[in-house]
Amino acid sequence: MKKTLFLFLILVSSFHLFSQENENKKTKFTDFLSKSYYSINLGGVYYPFSNDNLIDGYSTETFSRNWFSGRLLLGYKLTDDLSVQFGTMRPASWFKYDNVNNIGYDRSVWINAWSLSLKKDFKLHHNTSFYAEAGLANLTRFGFSINDKIIYEDAHYASLLYGFGVQHRLNDKWRLSLNGTFLPESTKHNQPSISQASLGFEYHLQQVDDIKAKEYARNDYFFPNNIIQVSYGTSAIGFGVNRFFGMSLKVGNFESFGIPIFWVGKVKAKHAFSVTYQKLIFRSEKIFSLDWGASVTAFQSELTNEDVFAFSIFPTLRFYLLRKKDFDFYANYSIIGPTFLTKSDIDGFESGPKITYQDTMGFGVFFGKKRKYNFELRIMHYSNGNIFTGNDGVAIPLQFTLGKTF
After folding, report:
1. Domain-located, residue 373
2. Cα(212)–Cα(320) distance, rounded to whole angstroms?
3. pTM confidence score
4. Which domain holds residue 10?
5. How far apart are CA 242 and CA 93, in angstroms?
6. Which secondary-structure segment (H or E) carries 331?
7. How many domains is the chain built from?
8. Range picked from 214-228, 361-375, 388-402 for highest mean pLDDT
9. Which member of 110, 128, 148, 393 has the greatest number of CB atoms within 10 A?
């Protein structure tokens, strides 16, 4: 326990040192953020799986293919026409072998690719450019078994990734894009090529000018500089909230009721206790803020009562939905928070390696004199984002959180 508290204090101190340079500049982006952008792209994916990928003696006459796919990217502009990008690409649902060997076995193949690439722009017109992209992808494939016999094996390897496209600049913030992205075939890993064609957009963050920054800093809207929180959750109240936001809640005849914006996980926590620190990095005029945070979570697994600790650092996006005289109501969301778990493959599930990621979402209020107090309801999830083949994930039940601002 002493080691846990010591590590937590180190993380808190590091965030303080990281942020104190911009202590009086919270209404302006850091230099890094001011050169950043994000990109969301939706379109079709082609991955020609076939019976040739299966071991001898197994085949099907029909396949279920979902062509719809997406690619999400975070980018940083090294120069005006050269960027580095990090992101993920995957189909909306998995390729399925229907009725294998005509004896009722339906099996899916999952694929997911995380990538790191360079993107170079070539101007064609004042607001239109052609781009070329090249980099590496971490490709993960989940194969399948029948009666404990591996029919299509898992795969995890580094692949080349390349692409090209056309972009049209609407203004300083928005760009529309037509994209093509490709991963070559790997005969060594029995993996066909992957091709994606998509339409999307880039949103480039723009630095706030000094006049607006000073105006924002002088207004009366509350944004906490620091928050310390303690949280507790128990599986006794179930995982209905997790399943609703993971679109897997069973309601009447609906097998997948809810909103698909979060994840659940096969490993379920019976009890979970968390201590969290968050520090403000950026705030807008009224609605949005960005925090960096550090947390320590201790949870006990539901099936075998394994005790696990999770040490995390993470970004938090907070959106203020309602501001009243006596309280401010918000929603927050945090994804891809690097995490170290003290155990792997919990409760007999392939939950993945000890290095993983934390995701959280919640709703809360700041209240009291000068908004000194905080109450929040949140859910949490640990998984590796399909970076590795073992990714059953951990679900933390609804946590009740009390906090203090300073």
Report:
1. yes
2. 19
3. 0.77
4. 2-29+214-405
5. 20
6. strand 327-341
7. 2
8. 361-375
9. 393
Q: Going by C-beta distance under 8 Å and a sequence separation of 6 or more, which residues neighbour residue 314?
A: 292, 293, 294, 295, 334, 336, 337, 338, 358, 360
In the block, which residue shows the tokens 């005790």? Answer: 307
Give the span between the Cα atoms of 120 and 404, in whole angstroms.
46
Distance CA 316, CA 323 (A): 19
* Structural domain includes residue 356: yes
Q: Answer whether 30's CB lies under 8 Å from 282's CB.
A: yes
Shared domain check, 314 and 295:
yes
Q: How many alpha carbons fall within 13 Å on the CB side of residue 351?
A: 29
Amino acid at 46: Y
Highest mean pLDDT among 3-12, 17-26, 56-65, 303-312: 303-312
The answer to whether the CB of 354 falls within 8 A of the CB of 308 is: no
**Residue ranges with strand state E in 81-192:** 82-91, 95-100, 105-123, 128-142, 144-146, 149-152, 155-169, 174-183
d(CA 197, CA 182): 9
Look up residue 400 and give its two tokens: 């009740």
Q: Is the pLDDT of residue 24 over 80?
A: no
CA separation for the pair 362, 379 (Å, rounded) = 6
DSSP calls for 27-69 = TS--HHHHTEEEEEEEEEEE----GGGSPTT---SEEE---EE
User: What are the residues whose beta carbons fall under 8 Å from the beta carbon of 186, sequence distance 6 or more?
Assistant: 155, 157, 159
Domain-embedded: residue 375: yes
**Given 139, 173, 204, which residue is the final one in a domain?**
204
Compute the mean pLDDT over every residue in the chain, rounded to the nearest whole number.
90
CATH of the domain at 95: 2.40.160.20
Tokens of 46: 């082609």
Could you count the other beta carbons within 10 Å of the beta carbon of residue 363? 13
Contact, 274 vs 231, CB < 8 A?
A: yes
Local structure of 342: helix, strand or coil: coil
The total number of residues shown for the chain amounts to 406
